[in-house]
Amino acid sequence: MKNLIQLGFATLLSVTFMTAKAQSKDTENSTLWEVSGNGLTQPSYIAGTFHIMCSQDFEIKPKVLKALEKSNHFVMEINYTDPTEMAAMQKMYQTDKKLSDQLTPEEAKELDKVLADYGTDLKKMDNSSSQALYALISMKALPCPQTEIKLYEIELLQNALKNKKKVSGLEKVEDQMTSINKAYDLKAVIGQLKMGKEYEILLKKMITAFKKEDLQSVYTLFKNDKIMNAGQEKAMLTDRNKNWVEKMPEMMKKESAFFAVGGAHLMGENGVIHLLRSKGYTVKPVSSL
């Protein structure tokens, strides 16, 4: 369970660190999208996910499971079946330089005070990375114990493995960590920690919207300027989306692929849906299969 929770924290970074400007003209909403045309001999699918939530809120729509069943290839942001990637993920929670050595005495004292709200202190967290610090927000924002946490991608992965699907990832852990570190240094993460209660409120609203398959509202909720500025958005969302969309055509050309990525990656002018349409693909919301 501990390893799965860490996976959840890693994937939650992807959704928590995302924002963009909503487009009022984009009223299409669904957690599942079909990709066809542009030379494809069979459709592929994109599922917008909500990486981690409590079991009481968790549900994978039947149409999503049916789309996965119809596909040959299951593709996540990161391939959790790759031992090398899992080893890299474990390392991302550690640091070669103590947190206290990266801060002034005053800043260290302030962080220690902030960490008290998360049930820990700087002494216990001093050898952790800034990503590990951010994971504390995830833990506090979820209104349930660890034993009741569900990981959307892991549930899909288990289904894919059970049905002997090919599994791969759109990026490496190293790529994702490079994006996160480019967008958020230690002091920026501390600033996010101070927003603990605001994240609880935001997460609750996002989950409510996601359960209604309203990815547009999930996307819009990330407009909060306290979470992300333009530069951070480029590093965490836009650049990654563009990199993924360059890899997806080859995957879809070979066989029917099922992509599972954080829901906020789909929407907006730099979202996966718009970028694929710009390449000539037909991308449409799926109401049922």
UniProtKB/TrEMBL annotation:
Alphabetical UniProt keywords: Glycoprotein, Hydrolase, Membrane, Metal-binding, Metalloprotease, Protease, Signal, Transmembrane, Transmembrane helix
Predominant place of localization: membrane
Necessary cofactors: Mn(2+); Co(2+)
Places the protein is found: Membrane
Pfam families assigned to the protein according to its UniProt record, in alphabetical order: TraB_PrgY_gumN (PF01963)
InterPro entries: TIKI1/2-like, TraB/PrgY/GumN_fam
CDD domains linked: Tiki (cd14789)
Membrane topology, record value: Single-pass type I membrane protein
First and last residue of the signal peptide: 1-22
Protein name per UniProt: TraB/GumN family protein
